[in-house]
Amino acid sequence: MDGFQKGIEAIIRGIKTTPPEENIFSDEDPNVVKERLVKKADDLKSRAEYLNEHPEERDPDTSFDCEVCEDQVWIPMRRFKNSEEEDILEGDFFSGQVHPSQAGNWATKVHWQCWCSKRKAEKKRIQKVDKQSGLSRRFKQRIFDNYTFLDPKDFPAEDYDQVMQLVESQRSAYQTAIDYAESFETMKEDGRSFGLLGSYGTGKTHLLGAITNELNRKGVQAVFVNTSEFFGQLKESFEKDENGKWVTTTRASELIEMMKTCDHLSLDDLGKEKPTDFVLDVLYRIVNYRYENMLPINFTTNASLEEMEQQVGGAIYRRMVEMASGYLKEICGESYEQLLLRKL
User: Fold this and answer.
1) How far apart are CA 36 and CA 257, in angstroms?
2) What values do phi and psi take at 160, rounded to 5?
């Protein structure tokens, strides 16, 4: 046994190992050992890639934010003779499964970056933009469990049909919203979206917020934006150059980029903002990018479909209605406030 092998053996024997020390070095064929350990590392990488696409399927019982790397972010590995296709976990290298005579083949140390690091960096970017813009803060408490329905029996007889119409349309929209959130993994494959039409004060915003909060709970990068507030923030973020010309700032670019690329976007009160050339141009860029890239874009509007088309233009209207096909609901009736004034 040469000095290098003796050194490796001394290191390994100084580490708490499994199997027991008396059986620390297996006589198993080195190629079989290699195949097994490489597959284990590959399975871990595959699990990481799967969770990156399906974060809602992470282990709910784990105490770690990331069950793959156990919050290490960078996982130490050993590479076989500089082959980028063959890595093993460094823990397995020192576990007694690799015989010292084979240690030289695994001399190259590498650190594999877990999927969670990129997602954490993106989450911090979104949180930074959200903090700067004030987006989504008021909607964090709006979930499916605290969505309430009126009881038609609590109202005068002459209002019974009106309240019943509201409640029935709300229940239909509520169930559709739950179905959408529960089936989002299927919905997102073709950019399927959810749209709500109806008068103000009928619970549309609550449902859109509930979808957003449910998706965020599952690990989806979901963003909720009131369109009027968004365009107000966007305009405030522009600056004038030395010639008095309005120019885009980094903050404005970040806001638009967030709207274009987040996993799921919800636009509340679409059409309420004044349809200036600037507004329609930015809105089209966002909607068209998401349409072309199959990225869902949920919305609420107080307008009818005909009014919505007039407000946002045919190109935006057609894309959004097409994406919400099958998940476009209307809540009919007066607002809660108007009805409650007449409650018995």
Assistant:
1) 43
2) -55, -50
CA angle 297, 264, 331 (to 5 degrees): 50
**C-alpha to C-alpha distances, 317 to 48, 306, 309, nearest whole angstrom:** 38, 9, 5
Distance CA 344, CA 340 (A): 9
Q: What is the pLDDT of residue 19?
A: 44
Please give the model's pTM, rounded to 2 decimal places.
0.63
| pLDDT of 78 | 93
Distance of CA 201 to the CA centre of its chain: 28
Strands 246-247 and 239-240: antiparallel
| Residue that is written with structure tokens 């404005």 in the block | 252
Collect all residues with Cβ–Cβ distance below 8 Å to 111 and sequence separation of at least 6. 74, 75, 76, 77
Scan for tokens 């609901």, then name that residue. 329
In terms of Cα–Cα distance, which of 178, 175, 170 is closest to 197? 170
CA distance 139 to 183: 21
Structure tokens at 3: 């000095």
State the Rg of the chain over Cα. Answer: 28
